[in-house]
Amino acid sequence: xxxxxxxxxxxxxxxxxxxxxxxxxxxxxxxxxxxxxxxxxxxxxxxxxxxxxxxxxxxxxxxxxxxxxxxxxxxxxxxxxxxxxxxxxxxxxxxxxxxxxxxxxxxxxxxxxxxxxxxxxxxxxxxxxxxxxxxxxxxxxxxxxxxxxxxxxxxxxxxxxxxxxxxxxxxxxxxxxxxxxxxxxxxxxxxxxxxxxxxxxxxxxxxxxxxxxxxxxxxxxxxxxxxxxxxxxxxxxxxxxxxxxxxxxxxxxxxxxxxxxxxxxxxxxxxxx
Length: 273
Prior knowledge:
About 30% of the residues lie in helices and about 20% in strands. With about 270 residues, it is of the alpha/beta class. The strands form two sheets. A ten-stranded mixed beta sheet has the order 4-3-2-5-6-11-10-7-8-9, sandwiched between helices. It has a two-stranded parallel sheet with strand order 1-12. Strand 10 (about 225-230), helix 7 and strand 11 (about 260-265) form a beta-alpha-beta unit.
């Protein structure tokens, strides 16, 4: 795992947009997140007409003559970005940088967390997420997913809703219990406790225990933001090539919920706070 060693004042939240309208829609939420996390803001765009509008937002910007995958790759190393925020518009033309499929394609190799905001969600006031949800299951869990949940708890005063299947298989249940203990260990080290109401463990309704719990968890009531792990592309098989990617399926399944995606990779950057 790679960690950024820069001081807080040298770390940034990236606002990623290719039009003034998209940037203005995202700006209130980016400002709120950056203030809570105590980070700066940088606007990134690869729009050909960026010179006509980037200065109107009043924040530092990088208008690059490049493509989004190359920009995304450079965010943590060249710009000290710890979180990218971008827009998802299901009505955008295919190939547009805000189309959900293109968003996931652009951030496929991202080494930092990227927060995807549905367009219709941004008509709401820019408030910090009250309830941040994630899942635990019988598989190996992501430390980074738990750490990002802790950031929202500590800096945004959010509560974490941790969902899991009601496993009846003893082996699966044992592995889940191990993951729960791992979560409790991490949260306890950060002075985050269930007793203080900072997180809660909730059982999902009965269903297919072999299915991805994210799809059932994200539609539970009261969720303001969901944290999801994007499977390693190297683990895909021939069946996966002809099916909807899990991350895109999640976006389509809950088109009004902002989702913080973390790519499953060994060199994922995290905040050191």
